[in-house]
User: What shape does this take?
Amino acid sequence: MSTSVIRSGERFIDEKTRQILDQFQRDGYFDFGPILEEDEVEALRTDMQNKWNDPRMHEPARDQIRGNSLMRMFEYSTAFRDLIIREPFAGLAEAILGDDCHCMSQNALYTPPNPKAVADGPGGWHLDDLVHFPLPTHIPRHDPDIPLPCFVMQIFTPLTDVEEVKYGPTQVIPGSHYAGRRPEEQDHPMFDGNKTYSFLTRKRHAYMFNNQMWHRGAPNASDCTRLMAGVTYSKRFVSQKFYPFIDYHMPDHIWTDASPRLQRMLGRHEKGAYG
Assistant: This one.
C-alpha cells in the first residue's frame, strides 16, 4: 500500500462534541460542512476510480454490491484505510458507539448518471439492515424524551460536488430513527411532520447519520458520476461485515504502519464478553 495523504485531523472540543451529539440524538444526523483537504479528496477519488476500473471488481462474486457499492475499500487504498481514524470522525464514533467501536464496513458508492433511476439503495427509501427497536402498529413512534442507543452510524465524505438534488444527494427524514418501523411511503415520506432533508454538499464536506433513519440516495439525473467515500462504524457487539464473512482473511499489507487505534478499528480487539 502506498503512503497515505490522509491527515490525522483534530477532535472537536468537548462543548462542540456535546452539541453535535445532542443534534444527532434528536435529528439522527449531522452535517459537518468542509472537513477534508483537497489532496485528501483527490487521493480517495483516484483510488476509488482505479478500483472501479479494475475489471475484477465487476465480477458478481467480487468486491461490489448491486454494481455500484465497492466493498472493503481499506484493502485497496491506504487513504481509505486511514480515513477510518481521521478526526473528527473517529472521535465522534467513539463518543456515540463506545471506545471499543470498530469499522463495520467501508463501502464507496459509484453512481453514474441515470435519469430514469427511481433511487439508489434497496427499494428507494429504506433503513439499513434490521429495525433495531420495532414498535407494534398501534404505537406511532418512540418517546422523543427517551434516548435510543445508536448501534450503527454512517459517515459519508462526498468526492464530487452534490450541490443540487439532480446530482443525487443522500436524503434523510429527520427524526425517523424514532419511528420503530420501515418507511411505508416511497413518494413523499414524512415522519412527525418532518419532510426530506437533502445533504447538498461539495467535495471536502462530510456528514453522518444513524443507520435507523429513513434515507436514500436520490436519483442521479445529472450528467456527472457521483462518488462517495466514507466509513460505517458500529458498536463492538455488532459483527463486522467483511465479505465473505467467516471465510474472510484480512490481507497482511493492511497492518503496515497501522496504529493501535486503527488496528482496533479494523477488528483487533482485546478479550471481552464471550471471548
Observations:
- The first strand starts at residue 29 and ends at 34.
- The radius of gyration is 18 Å.
- DSSP finds six helices and eleven strands in the chain.
